[in-house]
């Protein structure tokens, strides 16, 4: 089975590639909670921490989610949360690559970078957050 590589070109022209991603519900299966700005911030913070546990101690980039509000003005994240490890060309040519963990939320599980999040995704400031990696041989 062939899988299409997940790549996107950022607004600054840099191409980044996802080497691994995990999809879950945005509320991580929480059965009951009070929707609030605080709960939303906590769900995002948990996603950042889980990203580090899954992919190592890399810098984390959170693509700003589109938050909707219900009839009672309670905030809701999009239903799907993605946490992925991304690589790109290194900043320093003596290094192997640059990398970061990216967290994003979207309305559907596929495509991996959905149309509803693509514009915000392209605005990632890779150069200010990602870090170069080197392989020790």
Structural class, judged by helices and strands? alpha+beta
Shape: elongated
Distance between the termini: 32 Å
Tally of individual helices: 3
Query: How can the largest sheet be summarized?
Result: 6 strands, mixed
Compute the number of strand runs: 8
Element order: H for helix, E for strand: EEHEEEEEHHE
> Rg to the nearest angstrom?
16 Å
Kindly state the percentage of residues in helix. 10-25%
Percent range for β-strand residues = 25-35%
Written overview of the protein:
Helix content is 23%, strand content 32%. With 137 residues, the chain is an alpha+beta fold. The strands form 2 sheets. Strands 1, 2, 3, 6, 7 and 8 form a 6-stranded mixed sheet that branches. Strands 4-5 form a two-stranded antiparallel sheet. The longest helix is centred in the middle third of the chain and has 19 residues, at 37-55. The chain has helices at 37-55, 115-122, 126-129, and strands at residues 6-9, 15-25, 60-62, 68-69, 75-76, 80-88, 97-106, 131-133. The protein starts with 5 loop residues before the first strand and ends with a strand. It is built from 3 helices and 8 strands; from the N terminus they run ββαβββββααβ.
Set down the secondary structure blueprint.
Layout: E1 6-9, E2 15-25, H1 37-55, E3 60-62, E4 68-69, E5 75-76, E6 80-88, E7 97-106, H2 115-122, H3 126-129, E8 131-133
Parallel strand pairs: 3-7
Antiparallel strand pairs: 1-2, 2-6, 4-5, 6-7, 7-8
